[in-house]
Amino acid sequence: MRDMTELVLGPLLRHVGERTATVWVETDRPCTVEVLGASSPTFTVHGHHYALVEIDGLEPGSQTPYQVLLDGQVAWPEPGERSLPDSVIHTRRDGGPVRLAFGSCRRSPDPRGEHGPDALSAYAHRLAEGSGQWPTALLMIGDQVYADELGEEIREFIRRRRGTDSEPVDELADFEEYTYLYRLAWRTDPAVRWLLSTVPTYTIFDDHDVRDDWNTSYTWREQMWALPWWRRRITGGLGSYWIYQHLGNMSPEERAADELYARVRAADGDAGEIVDEFAERADKEPDKARWSYTRDFGGTRLVMVDSRCARLLTPDRRAMLDDAEHQWLREQCRGGVDHLLLASSLPYLLPRAIHNAENWNEAMAGGAWGRAGARLGEKVRQAADLEHWAAFDASFRSVAGDVLAVARQERGPAPASIAFLSGDVHYSYLARVTAPDSGATPISQVVCSPLRNPLQGRFRLANVLACRRGMAWAFRGLAALARVPKPPLRWRLTRGPWFDNMIATIEVDGRTSRVRWEAAADGTTLTERGTADLSA
């Protein structure tokens, strides 16, 4: 019999403040987890054991190496693993530069190299070698795992567990399979595992964290809930997301006030049913859960927006965000900060041709060209993934009004920059709002995607063509024929598109904000591809 409790996954360094830090772990059996003198017992969900250790009393701006103890014995660093530096907690201090690295869409592991070099791994190697500036935080903006595009390792696990013919075929079925996928994504590469143990990480989901086209329309939801296996899939997806990703996004104060977290920790035995009930309710009644959140890094405000689960989809209404979520976002869009960053997994500003095509498709699927046109429009929507902000035109217009109000000092002193941070589309670019006049505050869209999962073949060619200026007019004509008014903003791409596996960094110093994109030249090296001043 084993004497030591072991780490299954982690440690993951999550929310970090000026004096506080949160370390997340999964262990192979119930135990007490200790980090820097702070401790927490594990809680159990579907036979898996987790803990979030909340450390307090750190010095602002300090660097503190740490170990993880399980039942009093050192479990991290793991015995014999000394090729990487110690895991260190870097606390924040107001003033000074802020660096937010971000990206999305990471397929892992990839033993055959089908998806190219991993930008996240290359970034980890650079930090481990001491040759890069340390980030304030890492933002993972969607598709941290792919539940519907499986690699050979997870396929083999599923074959051993439930055979080859059980539904869903070639997709995850439930919570247990999600736990294995997270382990593959975050433990397989030692450099990435170390990175996640020492850089504060904040996340939000996108569709592949659950399933391609997740919540694209009311029709899609009806189709999925008619499948006999969907309930286990959606509860497994959202329940595991709550544990593996969302809990660490919260501040200690937010977790202390979270009723679900309190119930799970107080459960007598396994809390799987509690989490499943929450997950199903969160899917069916999105206003009963909030996945969005805000974080302030000195004078920089980050608003992380849930543009997947919070959608309002009924036979009569469709919106990117339900009414409560729209109101919450409106309240976050205010001045009095140096820089306002709005992170959404889905780009708010797409290449104009794609925006116009999605405008047209939404109107067509909504009946602008009759019932037959509506049926065709729905098929095209699902086949071509036409479900970004542009496909929710009323929501797009509402957010445009909010950011323009902030830029024009209608909600307090104007920021020096407003930028949307996004992923999803599997290429990277910068778009600038050119009209209407937003005063002294430039408005930008910064996209960085993928970390590792590049577009190939005809999909890449289609997006190359869509980024050309002349392509926008044809789809604008179709949208006009469907009686869609012109967008309330005008914008154009000024950097990119780049189709490499990439990671980007927003660098803020006072009222100046810049972005840098870097491509993975190989598994350990990054090469700069472009820079831009977001505050000018």
Write the SSE topology:
Blueprint: E1 7-16, E2 21-27, E3 32-35, E4 38-41, E5 43-45, E6 48-55, E7 63-65, E8 68-70, E9 73-76, E10 88-90, E11 98-103, H1 119-128, E12 137-141, H2 152-162, H3 175-187, H4 190-198, E13 201-204, H5 218-225, H6 230-249, H7 252-256, H8 259-266, H9 272-284, E14 293-297, E15 300-305, E16 312-313, E17 318-319, H10 323-332, E18 339-344, H11 352-365, H12 370-384, H13 393-407, E19 417-422, E20 428-435, E21 443-447, H14 457-466, H15 472-481, E22 490-498, E23 502-509, E24 512-520, E25 526-533
Parallel strand pairs: 11-12, 12-13, 15-18, 18-19, 19-21
Antiparallel strand pairs: 1-2, 2-6, 3-4, 3-8, 5-6, 7-10, 8-9, 11-23, 14-15, 16-17, 20-21, 20-22, 23-24, 24-25
Report on this model:
Helices cover 32% and strands 26% of the residues. The protein has 536 residues and is an alpha+beta fold. The protein has two domains: 1-93, Immunoglobulin-like, CATH 2.60.40.380; 94-533, Alkaline phosphatase D (PhoD) (Purple Acid Phosphatase, chain A, domain 2). Strand 8 and strand 9 (73-76) form a beta hairpin. The radius of gyration is 23 Å and the shape is globular. The model has no long low-confidence stretch (mean pLDDT 96).
